[in-house]
Amino acid sequence: MLLSSDLRKHLRKRRLLLSASNRLNFNALINQHLITSKLLIRCSSIASYLATDVEVNLLPLIKTCSIRKIHHLLPVIRKDHSLTFQRYNWNSQLTPNKYGIFEPTSSDTLQTKFISAIITPLVGFDTLGNRLGMGGGYYDRSLAFTKNSHCRLRPLIIGAAYQLQEADSIPSNHWDVPLDAVVTEKGIIHFSKRAKYLL
User: Is 93 helix (H, G, I), strand (E, B) or coil?
Assistant: First the structure.
Protein backbone atom coordinates (compact mmCIF):
# COMPACT_ATOMS: atom_id res chain seq x y z
CA MET A 1 0.00 0.00 0.00
CA LEU A 2 1.30 3.44 -0.92
CA LEU A 3 1.75 6.06 1.78
CA SER A 4 -0.87 8.82 1.68
CA SER A 5 1.63 11.36 0.30
CA ASP A 6 2.75 9.03 -2.51
CA LEU A 7 -0.81 7.99 -3.31
CA ARG A 8 -1.86 11.64 -3.39
CA LYS A 9 0.89 12.45 -5.91
CA HIS A 10 -0.04 9.43 -8.04
CA LEU A 11 -3.76 10.25 -8.13
CA ARG A 12 -3.18 13.96 -8.74
CA LYS A 13 -0.94 13.11 -11.70
CA ARG A 14 -3.59 10.73 -13.05
CA ARG A 15 -6.24 13.45 -12.76
CA LEU A 16 -4.00 16.02 -14.50
CA LEU A 17 -3.69 13.71 -17.52
CA LEU A 18 -7.45 13.78 -18.11
CA SER A 19 -8.11 15.50 -21.45
CA ALA A 20 -10.03 18.78 -21.55
CA SER A 21 -12.85 17.23 -23.58
CA ASN A 22 -13.23 14.28 -21.22
CA ARG A 23 -13.14 16.63 -18.24
CA LEU A 24 -16.02 18.68 -19.70
CA ASN A 25 -18.05 15.57 -20.50
CA PHE A 26 -17.43 14.00 -17.09
CA ASN A 27 -18.30 17.23 -15.27
CA ALA A 28 -21.61 17.39 -17.15
CA LEU A 29 -22.43 13.78 -16.24
CA ILE A 30 -21.53 14.25 -12.56
CA ASN A 31 -23.75 17.32 -12.31
CA GLN A 32 -26.55 15.48 -14.07
CA HIS A 33 -26.31 12.57 -11.63
CA LEU A 34 -26.59 14.96 -8.67
CA ILE A 35 -29.39 17.10 -10.12
CA THR A 36 -31.53 14.11 -11.13
CA SER A 37 -30.98 12.26 -7.84
CA LYS A 38 -33.19 12.75 -4.78
CA LEU A 39 -30.63 15.21 -3.36
CA LEU A 40 -32.42 18.41 -4.40
CA ILE A 41 -35.78 17.06 -3.24
CA ARG A 42 -34.80 15.66 0.14
CA CYS A 43 -32.13 18.13 1.26
CA SER A 44 -33.14 21.61 2.39
CA SER A 45 -29.55 22.91 2.41
CA ILE A 46 -26.59 21.85 0.30
CA ALA A 47 -22.98 22.95 0.57
CA SER A 48 -20.57 22.45 -2.31
CA TYR A 49 -17.41 24.22 -3.49
CA LEU A 50 -15.94 26.30 -6.32
CA ALA A 51 -13.55 24.07 -8.24
CA THR A 52 -9.95 24.62 -9.21
CA ASP A 53 -9.03 23.70 -12.79
CA VAL A 54 -8.52 20.03 -11.97
CA GLU A 55 -11.43 19.42 -9.59
CA VAL A 56 -14.95 18.42 -10.59
CA ASN A 57 -16.76 21.61 -11.58
CA LEU A 58 -20.16 21.86 -9.86
CA LEU A 59 -21.37 25.17 -11.33
CA PRO A 60 -24.45 23.59 -13.00
CA LEU A 61 -25.53 22.15 -9.64
CA ILE A 62 -24.92 25.48 -7.89
CA LYS A 63 -26.94 27.34 -10.51
CA THR A 64 -29.78 24.80 -10.23
CA CYS A 65 -29.88 25.27 -6.45
CA SER A 66 -30.19 29.02 -6.97
CA ILE A 67 -32.96 28.64 -9.56
CA ARG A 68 -34.91 26.23 -7.33
CA LYS A 69 -34.28 28.43 -4.29
CA ILE A 70 -32.52 25.66 -2.38
CA HIS A 71 -30.36 26.96 0.47
CA HIS A 72 -26.84 26.62 -0.95
CA LEU A 73 -23.55 27.28 0.83
CA LEU A 74 -19.85 27.50 0.03
CA PRO A 75 -16.89 26.87 2.37
CA VAL A 76 -14.88 29.71 3.85
CA ILE A 77 -11.50 29.03 5.49
CA ARG A 78 -11.20 30.10 9.12
CA LYS A 79 -8.05 31.08 11.03
CA ASP A 80 -8.09 27.74 12.90
CA HIS A 81 -7.80 25.91 9.54
CA SER A 82 -11.36 24.66 9.64
CA LEU A 83 -14.27 25.67 7.43
CA THR A 84 -17.41 27.65 7.97
CA PHE A 85 -20.18 27.54 5.37
CA GLN A 86 -21.77 30.71 4.06
CA ARG A 87 -24.86 31.17 1.93
CA TYR A 88 -24.27 31.66 -1.78
CA ASN A 89 -26.77 32.53 -4.51
CA TRP A 90 -25.85 32.56 -8.18
CA ASN A 91 -23.92 35.77 -8.93
CA SER A 92 -23.45 36.66 -5.24
CA GLN A 93 -20.28 38.59 -4.50
CA LEU A 94 -17.10 36.54 -4.07
CA THR A 95 -13.56 37.31 -2.95
CA PRO A 96 -10.38 35.16 -3.30
CA ASN A 97 -8.85 33.58 -0.20
CA LYS A 98 -5.11 33.03 0.40
CA TYR A 99 -5.15 30.07 -2.01
CA GLY A 100 -6.87 32.07 -4.74
CA ILE A 101 -10.14 30.16 -4.23
CA PHE A 102 -13.18 32.39 -4.32
CA GLU A 103 -15.36 32.57 -1.21
CA PRO A 104 -18.69 34.32 -0.55
CA THR A 105 -18.50 37.64 1.26
CA SER A 106 -21.89 37.11 2.92
CA SER A 107 -21.98 36.76 6.70
CA ASP A 108 -25.03 34.49 6.43
CA THR A 109 -23.64 31.22 7.82
CA LEU A 110 -25.25 27.93 8.76
CA GLN A 111 -23.81 25.69 11.47
CA THR A 112 -22.26 22.65 9.83
CA LYS A 113 -24.42 20.21 11.79
CA PHE A 114 -27.57 21.76 10.31
CA ILE A 115 -26.47 21.41 6.68
CA SER A 116 -28.32 18.55 4.96
CA ALA A 117 -25.51 17.57 2.59
CA ILE A 118 -21.92 18.65 1.94
CA ILE A 119 -20.30 17.87 -1.40
CA THR A 120 -16.53 17.82 -1.09
CA PRO A 121 -13.68 17.80 -3.60
CA LEU A 122 -11.11 15.05 -3.19
CA VAL A 123 -7.94 13.59 -4.61
CA GLY A 124 -8.91 9.96 -4.15
CA PHE A 125 -11.48 7.55 -2.72
CA ASP A 126 -11.81 3.81 -2.22
CA THR A 127 -14.67 1.29 -2.11
CA LEU A 128 -15.02 1.68 1.68
CA GLY A 129 -15.74 5.40 1.47
CA ASN A 130 -12.32 6.55 2.63
CA ARG A 131 -11.48 10.00 1.25
CA LEU A 132 -8.04 11.35 0.39
CA GLY A 133 -7.98 15.15 0.30
CA MET A 134 -5.26 17.66 -0.48
CA GLY A 135 -3.65 17.07 2.91
CA GLY A 136 -4.72 20.27 4.66
CA GLY A 137 -7.32 18.53 6.83
CA TYR A 138 -9.88 21.33 6.47
CA TYR A 139 -12.87 19.05 5.95
CA ASP A 140 -11.76 16.53 8.57
CA ARG A 141 -11.43 19.26 11.21
CA SER A 142 -14.77 20.79 10.24
CA LEU A 143 -16.59 17.45 10.29
CA ALA A 144 -14.83 15.90 13.31
CA PHE A 145 -18.03 16.21 15.37
CA THR A 146 -19.71 13.59 13.16
CA LYS A 147 -17.44 10.87 14.60
CA ASN A 148 -19.01 11.31 18.04
CA SER A 149 -21.33 8.35 18.65
CA HIS A 150 -23.84 10.71 20.34
CA CYS A 151 -24.03 12.96 17.28
CA ARG A 152 -27.62 13.11 16.06
CA LEU A 153 -27.39 15.97 13.60
CA ARG A 154 -24.87 15.59 10.81
CA PRO A 155 -24.66 16.36 7.10
CA LEU A 156 -24.54 13.73 4.40
CA ILE A 157 -20.96 13.79 3.09
CA ILE A 158 -20.63 13.26 -0.65
CA GLY A 159 -17.38 13.21 -2.58
CA ALA A 160 -17.24 14.53 -6.15
CA ALA A 161 -14.60 12.83 -8.28
CA TYR A 162 -13.71 11.27 -11.59
CA GLN A 163 -13.76 7.47 -11.66
CA LEU A 164 -10.00 7.42 -12.33
CA GLN A 165 -9.52 8.84 -8.82
CA GLU A 166 -10.62 5.55 -7.25
CA ALA A 167 -7.82 3.75 -5.42
CA ASP A 168 -7.66 0.13 -4.31
CA SER A 169 -7.19 1.22 -0.71
CA ILE A 170 -6.67 4.53 1.06
CA PRO A 171 -4.87 4.59 4.44
CA SER A 172 -7.29 5.73 7.13
CA ASN A 173 -6.40 7.63 10.29
CA HIS A 174 -8.59 8.03 13.38
CA TRP A 175 -9.30 11.68 12.49
CA ASP A 176 -10.41 10.94 8.92
CA VAL A 177 -14.11 11.44 8.23
CA PRO A 178 -15.45 8.90 5.72
CA LEU A 179 -17.81 9.60 2.85
CA ASP A 180 -21.47 8.59 2.78
CA ALA A 181 -21.31 8.48 -1.02
CA VAL A 182 -19.24 9.51 -4.00
CA VAL A 183 -20.48 10.69 -7.38
CA THR A 184 -18.44 10.13 -10.54
CA GLU A 185 -19.25 10.31 -14.24
CA LYS A 186 -20.41 6.67 -13.96
CA GLY A 187 -22.99 7.36 -11.25
CA ILE A 188 -23.43 7.50 -7.49
CA ILE A 189 -21.78 4.98 -5.18
CA HIS A 190 -23.43 4.67 -1.76
CA PHE A 191 -21.41 3.85 1.35
CA SER A 192 -24.13 4.37 3.98
CA LYS A 193 -27.83 3.53 4.34
CA ARG A 194 -28.59 7.22 4.77
CA ALA A 195 -27.01 7.98 1.41
CA LYS A 196 -29.23 5.40 -0.28
CA TYR A 197 -32.28 7.14 1.18
CA LEU A 198 -31.23 10.72 0.41
CA LEU A 199 -29.67 10.06 -2.98
Answer: coil
Provide the CB-side half-sphere exposure for 12 (13 A, CA): 13
Show the DSSP H helices in the chain as ranges: 4-16, 20-36, 39-42, 59-67, 138-142, 193-198
Nearest to 195 by CA among 139, 131, 117, 125: 117
Residue 55, helix vs strand vs coil: coil
Q: Are 165 and 14 in contact (CB under 8 A)?
A: yes
Count of structural domains, the chain: 1
pLDDT digits (tens, 9 = 90+) for 177-195: 999 999 999 999 999 999 9
Please tell me the pTM assigned to this model: 0.94
Rounded distance, CA 27 to CA 122, Å? Answer: 14
Among candidate residues 135, 136, 134, 177, the one with its CA nearest the CA of residue 158: 177
What is the pLDDT averaged over residues 142-149? 88
**pLDDT-wise least confident of 71-75, 115-119, 143-147:** 143-147
CATH of the domain at 92: 3.40.50.10420
No. of helices (H) and no. of strands (E), the chain: 6, 11
Q: pLDDT, tens digit, for every residue of 2-25?
A: 668 889 999 999 999 999 999 999
Residue 69 belongs to what domain range? Answer: 4-198
Q: At what angle do helices 20-36 and 59-67 cross, to 10 degrees?
A: 30
Exposure letters 168-191 (e unless 16+ CB within 10 A, then b): eebeeeeebbbbbbbbbbeebbbb
